[in-house]
Amino acid sequence: IFVDDENYIDMSTSISGSGPAYIFLLMETMIDAGVHMGFSRDTATTLVHHTLLGSTLYAMESGQHPAILRNSVTSPAGTTASAIYELENGKFRTVIKDAIWACYRRSLEMGGADSNVGPGRISNPPPFQTPSHHPVEAPVNEMVDDDSTKKMK
């Protein structure tokens, strides 16, 4: 894909440049789950490779929105619906989007640009300073007025 606007380079880095690492982490997680369930590592790896390859090819060939494709392979109250529920409950989408934004911000930082963009902005809080004096605690009876003290009795 040709990017004719320099502003899109950092954005594409966060999706395309670093994207393979996200996919490899997903693959690693799926393979590990397969092994945990009892598959050999080789079998789990083959299943995951073909699942991702087939899903990607199907998405590219169909041209349909991923939500439509996901719904087409998710039976109501079925096994996939249960898995999707867990992913949504675990904030899967939020974690992925936050990771992409973090990558984008870091790309801007490395390029010397302002990283104060998008949700979850990076801010540099002032360094912690120890107070030069200790606050004096007010006696309890000075913190409430007479009416509230009477009500508590």
**What does the largest sheet look like?**
none
Shape: globular
Give the CATH H-level superfamily of the domain at 9-110.
ProC C-terminal domain-like
**CATH architecture designation of the domain at 9-110:** Orthogonal Bundle
Quickly count the helices. 8
Radius of gyration: 26 Å
CATH class of the domain at 9-110: Mainly Alpha
Q: Helical residue percent?
A: 55-70%
Outline the low-pLDDT stretches.
Answer: 121-131, 133-153
Q: What is the number of E strands?
A: 0
Distance between the termini: 75 Å
Characterise this structure.
With 153 residues, this protein is mostly helical. It has a domain at 9-110: ProC C-terminal domain-like fold, CATH 1.10.3730. Helices cover 65% and strands 0% of the residues. It is built from eight helices and no strands. The protein has helices spanning 7-17, 19-37, 41-62, 66-72, 79-89, 92-110, 140-143, 146-152. α1 packs across α6 (92-110) and α2 (19-37) packs across α3 (41-62). It is globular. The termini are far apart. The model is unreliable at 121-131 and 133-153 (pLDDT under 50).
The gist of it:
With 153 residues, the chain is mostly helical.
